[in-house]
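User: Predict the complex with coenzyme A.
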Amino acid sequence: MQADDLDQVIAIDARVTGVEKTDYWYEVFHRYGTRGGRQRFCFVAELDGAVEGFVVGEVRDWEFGEPPCGWVFGISVRPEARLGGVATRLLETICGAFRSAGVTKVRTLIARDNHLVLSFFRSQGMMAAPFIPLEIDIA
Ligand SMILES: CC(C)(COP(=O)(O)OP(=O)(O)OC[C@H]1O[C@@H](n2cnc3c(N)ncnc32)[C@H](O)[C@@H]1OP(=O)(O)O)[C@@H](O)C(=O)NCCC(=O)NCCS
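Assistant: Here is the predicted structure with coenzyme A placed in the model:
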């Protein structure tokens, strides 16, 4: 991901999620792009110079008592570019970066009702992990 990809990344994310998060994406780019180092990664897939999709993730060390692993926390493809293998390439790319960073396990978290993303990750071989998410409303 380059700085001049950001407008397109923000637009794809806004279309997919219904929320435009310009500041968030500049912060992500600052932390995962320019200053990503060896543990934080963000990639775009491009066709003829236009952004078709993106993926963001990082290696997290010993979180929840677990050995270092790669976390994918954002993957989206422009609706018109779907079902052409773009997300598959994006996931392969970030997994390659995770491997280079020395980890052999990849995790993600998805909403229970997001069947599209679940179908995608299942197609890539991902299975339910031996964890349960917990939350509490502290407002
Ligand atoms: C999930 C998503 C990233 C998949 O992108 P994509 O480029 O279309 O995926 P691919 O073409 O690489 O598909 C790979 C496999 O995923 C599965 N898959 C993808 N889209 C699917 C669909 N609509 N229905 C069922 N399975 C699907 C298939 O098994 C597919 O393999 P196949 O084409 O051989 O059947 C894309 O649909 C998307 O951006 N969805 C919205 C994401 C989102 O909600 N993001 C917010 C939270 S991060």
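The mean pLDDT is 95.
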